[in-house]
Amino acid sequence: MNVLVFAKFDITPEQWADFTKEASIPPPTHYSGGPTSPTVPYVLLHSKSQEDYARSEELSTTLRTEFSNADYFEMNEFIDSKVVSLPYEQARTLYKDFFMVLDEQSVKDRTVIVVDRTWERLDPEGNIVEDDTLSEREDVTRGTVWRVHRVPYDKALNFYLDLSMNPGMEGEEFLEEVIRPDA
């Protein structure tokens, strides 16, 4: 599976290589016959008319982005409209419940934003209900919640693997904000 990564700035080959070098899947060391170089499980999104959703292993030139002013809602809409409408064979290789964002701060502190779209129990004011005993109340509903994390490049791989295999178990170490788009 591949993670969608939005570029919020014009990204150079060196900047993309810095991210992918730290955040890729290392080649296996416990058996022979497998890949001998790291696997880059990321698709760099830079154009609203982009049609190539193959892994972005390296860049040959600086990519101009059309997402510099896009917020998370617009990125989500792009995924819902463009990526979800891809042919099944292509769409099934892409994570759609979370995505990553490289912004200007990413280059400075070597971190990537991870936006995880999930469901939570919400009270009538839109606050997350943490107490399991309250979940039986009639006024508690399920609603969309986006958790925005800023993760160091060298921890991004394990972080996204935790999200994909154990949603909700990623912890709050890198949590920056919680957005309730329906509130």
Question: Which terms summarize this structure?
Answer:
single chain; 183 residues; alpha/beta; 6 strands; globular
Characterization of the model:
The protein is α/β, with parallel strands linked by helices. It has one domain (3-179). Helix content is 25%, strand content 23%. The protein contains five helices and six strands, in the order βαβααβαββαβ. It has a six-stranded mixed beta sheet with strand order 2-1-3-4-5-6. Strand 1 (3-7), helix 1 and strand 2 form a beta-alpha-beta unit.
Brief characterization of the structure:
This protein is α/β, with parallel strands linked by helices and 183 residues long. The chain has helices spanning 13-23, 72-83, 88-91, 104-109, 153-165; strands spanning 3-7, 42-45, 98-102, 111-122, 141-152, 175-179.
